[in-house]
Amino acid sequence: MQGTRRAVLDALATGPVSGPDLAEELGVSRAAVWKHVEALREAGFEVEPGGDGYSLASVPDFGGPAVEFGLDAPYAVKYHDTVPSTNERARELATEGRENVVVLADEQTGGKGRLDRAWASPSGGVWLSVLLRPEVPPAQTPLFTLAAAVATVRAAREAGVDAVIKWPNDVLVAGSERKLAGVLTEMGGEADRVDWLVVGVGVNANVDRDAIPGERATSLRAEVGDVDRRALTQRLLEAFHDRQTDPDGVLPAWRDHAVTLGQRVRVETPGGEVTGEAVDVTFPGSLVVETTDGRVEVTAGDCEHLRPAGGSP
Ligand code: BT5
User: In this model, does residue 309 exceed pLDDT 70?
Assistant: First the structure.
């Protein structure tokens, strides 16, 4: 946001303030102040007149100006109305040497899931990617996926949905297999060192159920009605940042929110299918499955919940 416009907005936020006072304070003409107020209104900010002058009555829910003004994120923010994929955009920023940036979009036209699957990302969702350069070996990056899932659950719960995590990257509505959000982590680097890490989170926020594919997909709108995406994004980023700076806290937090532990699962791994009871998750994010041939640690794969361990077939 341009400097004077930002100053006008800040003054209105702490207002009321009169047009002439504001013009004098900022060293611009009254006409210029008025132009900025009009532009802010067009961007969705409600500016109300009163006896003592103008004040800010409300901030738009989402969008570039709202995010820039109202999102107090622990990362630099790059907002796009529409973008092919926030993960791709974050990767481009990585090649430009950036870090600690979050790319946000209202809509993605080429959203990606894992294993080259597509992720439907209509306007109204929360599609974001955090670009980091953590000093960890590549084998530890699954911890960031788990941290993002924990953060998403926290944010979804504050928005009123009883959310849980299904290993490794799905956020579901408790007591159902309905998927609310997913995480896609990508990285670049060498065998012993991560150069960049992009943690992408997609939350079906204010989107219609029929705009997202699959019988199991759901959205916050479908579960609890529309939410304040700015607040949700802020909460998610804060919770992720907390976990990112406290790696030892990730696994305990994940266990607290996980629905996979204690379930009979079938995991499709690159090395074949593993079936048994999911008994734990261990550093840096492997699922421990008790099979008839003993314990197996699975580092990656698609997990299906069969039925609760010990439950009737
Ligand atoms: C995921 O993949 O769950 C990871 C999704 C990550 C998306 C974010 S959005 C911001 C960032 N930028 C990107 O380009 N991506 C990340 P996976 O577990 O593979 O699930 C994909 C499968 O879920 C698809 O094959 C569909 O069956 C289904 N699906 C597609 N879109 C969906 C949606 N919006 N909600 C629920 N399920 C969906």
Answer: no
Q: Give start and end residues of each alpha helix (H) in the chain.
A: 3-13, 19-26, 30-42, 64-70, 86-95, 142-158, 220-224, 229-244, 250-257
Residue 85 CA: which ligand 1 atom is closest?
14
* Single pTM value for the model: 0.89
Q: How many Å lie between the centroid of ligand 1 and the Cα of residue 86? A: 12
For the segment 24-32, the average pLDDT, to the nearest whole number, is: 93
**Ligand 1 within 6 A of 185 CB?**
no
Domain boundaries, the chain: 3-58, 64-257, 263-308
Domain 3-58 has CATH 3.40.50.720: no
Q: Residue 204: CB within 6 Å of ligand 1?
A: yes
CATH class of 64-257: alpha beta
Choosing among 2.60.40.10, 3.40.50.1000, 3.90.226.10, 2.30.30.100, the CATH entry for 263-308 is: 2.30.30.100
Over residues 219-240, the pLDDT tens digits come to 999 999 999 898 899 999 999 9
Give the tens place of pLDDT for each residue, 132-153: 999 999 999 999 999 999 999 9
Q: 92, 119, 171, 216: which to mutate for ligand 1, most atoms within 8 A of CB?
A: 119
CA 156/CA 150 separation, integer angstroms: 10
- Grouping H, G, I as helix, E, B as strand and the rest as coil, residue 243 is helix
Fill in the DSSP letter of residue 162: -
How many angstroms separate the alpha carbon of residue 137 from the centre of ligand 1? 26
